[in-house]
Amino acid sequence: MHIIWNQYPEIKEELLEIIKLMDENAKCKDKVIEQSIKDLIHANGKMIRPAFTVLAAHFGEYEPEKVRALASVVELFHMATLVHDDVIDDANLRRGVPTIQAKYGKEYAVYIGDYLFCICFKILASTASLQSIQVDSLSMSRICLGEVEQLNSRFNTEVSVKNYLKRIAGKTAELFSLSLYIGAAESGCSDKLTKSFWRIGHHIGMAFQIIDDILDYTGCEKSVGKDHAKDIQEGVFNLPLIYALEKQPKDLLALLEKHPYSDTDLKEIVQLVDTYGGIDRARRLAHQYTQKAYKHINKLPDNEYKMILLEVAHKLLDRAY
Amino acid sequence: MHIIWNQYPEIKEELLEIIKLMDENAKCKDKVIEQSIKDLIHANGKMIRPAFTVLAAHFGEYEPEKVRALASVVELFHMATLVHDDVIDDANLRRGVPTIQAKYGKEYAVYIGDYLFCICFKILASTASLQSIQVDSLSMSRICLGEVEQLNSRFNTEVSVKNYLKRIAGKTAELFSLSLYIGAAESGCSDKLTKSFWRIGHHIGMAFQIIDDILDYTGCEKSVGKDHAKDIQEGVFNLPLIYALEKQPKDLLALLEKHPYSDTDLKEIVQLVDTYGGIDRARRLAHQYTQKAYKHINKLPDNEYKMILLEVAHKLLDRAY
């Protein structure tokens, strides 16, 4: 279990129950499949999304079994998308451990991802209301669309800020929203409160992804656990670069045209993005989303879970970036 | 619309409505995504699975809108698995037209498949009962497992008949069963009748896949629409080969060890499989499943849809193989 939860024993205990439930749902006659899913479950992810479901559910009538099932769905869905992302990105490491595809091959990773999707709906159908399954599947389809949009805009030097925001709203913020929403909705919270959780998830998710993307420019391998400037190499042009491109800088445009980029190219691109103010502007937008998230969390009814949500949001969003 | 339905105008009309519904569900702000899904919908597939749902539903209280939605789900799910199969197989053609991945790349195909999965559950949640969604998701997860099992047994010369049957039960028969089952179950058929449809789907599916696999040995590119002996090249050892291997033939084993196979190797493998009686034995097993399917269909309550089901089964299973 990630250290982030050590100071919230109640949430930590619940997350351990959720891991147990995911392990149970990973059970399969084929032991290789079972083990590869368990490896994912125990890869020490932060479990932010299921924690969000748990926290939001505490604002209504908390039914432990139901909440755990719903929380396991958002985490398993997240895992499914990660497995497929790694296929696309040709990634060998995820959370510091070899990816499914590095261990078992791409083909295997495609089907394991599909299998995880099906498990999600199996759990949902035995737990959630039809309305929640509808919201879930619609939301999940938007997440897939976000991924497709990211693909379609690769190496496009004319990609707009609007397009970028739409893309990350789909691929990241949507699942944060869903995690909070489903916890609240299935625990009988009012429509108003449920919608408010959806917005909080959106703002946290947007800030989180922008920060993550900034770290691609400012981070090093150690602190973010992935290769420096990897997104640029793959043609995924993120906010700092898009802002820099708005100034139509001939040197940067010329560099971007000659992909695949050498290490020197990448360093130079990052340097130019910084020079053209892209990183600073991106930081300001991340800050705006972060502030909006805090504002909306502060408006929630007062209880201990609100404080935890606020603190966790701080931990997620006040990283050095 | 495939010519197979020309002599059943009522079913054909219903299938056209189902295509319309799939088109509606393919609607998407991103027009490239929408078009690529519509290309799949209009690729002139046989629409066997949705037709099965329609036929089975006629044994109960037929609710057109509900049945169409359920039928579109089984076809869209089938498409999702095909899109991902093509990613795995590196296939460029499907039903004679370029595959999604040939047109838009593998990455795109992975996410479009995921998106189709989500659409399936979105439609299900707005149409079916929770119980049917449970059956569906469980069934879909077994289909994915069948695919994984196929991968895990590639190039394994010790693969058993039992393993093969389990694999095709998952990857093919399961969806035939589900298509019939969901039509019957959601139209209020009795448990006994619903189970009977499940079995019919199983037997048709098993016979269908064994025949398809035999065609990999006996067919030519034109008649099956895919490369001759393609499965062998990919290390997917099917029933005729497995039967031949049971005789522990040193010449065949030696050939199988030296993959990738040349065209001459492939011809020789096919020849040896025939010599060792693999094709004949596979034909006999296909025949047994076919007969079981007919027997169970004959036991259904008498009506015009029973006759159509029987005729369609004949068309599917009495191919030259």
How is the secondary structure organized here?
The structure is a homodimer of 321-residue chains.
Chain A: H1 9-26, H2 31-41, H3 48-57, H4 64-89, E1 93-94, E2 97-98, H5 100-104, H6 106-127, H7 130-152, H8 161-185, H9 191-218, H10 221-224, H11 230-233, H12 239-245, H13 250-257, H14 263-275, H15 278-298, H16 304-317
Antiparallel strand pairs in A: 1-2
Helix pairs in contact in A: 1-2, 1-3, 1-4, 3-4, 3-8, 4-6, 4-8, 7-8, 8-9, 9-15, 12-14, 12-15, 13-14, 15-16
Could you characterize the architecture of this molecule?
The structure is a homodimer. With about 325 residues, chain A is mainly α. The first copy, chain A, has a single domain (about 5-315), classed as Farnesyl Diphosphate Synthase, CATH 1.10.600.10. The first copy, chain A, contains 16 helices and two strands. Chain A has helices spanning about 10-25, 30-40, 50-55, 65-90, 100-105, 105-125, 130-150, 160-185, 190-220, 220-225, 230-235, 240-245, 250-255, 265-275, 280-300, 305-315, and strands at about 95, 95-100. Chain A has a two-stranded antiparallel sheet with strand order 1-2. In chain A, a hairpin with a 2-residue loop joins strand 1 (about 95) and strand 2 (about 95-100). Chain A is globular. Chain A starts with 8 loop residues before the first helix and ends with a helix. Residues about 220-225 of chain A have low confidence and may be disordered. At the A-B interface, helix 4, helix 6 and helix 7 of A face helix 4, helix 6 and helix 7 of B.
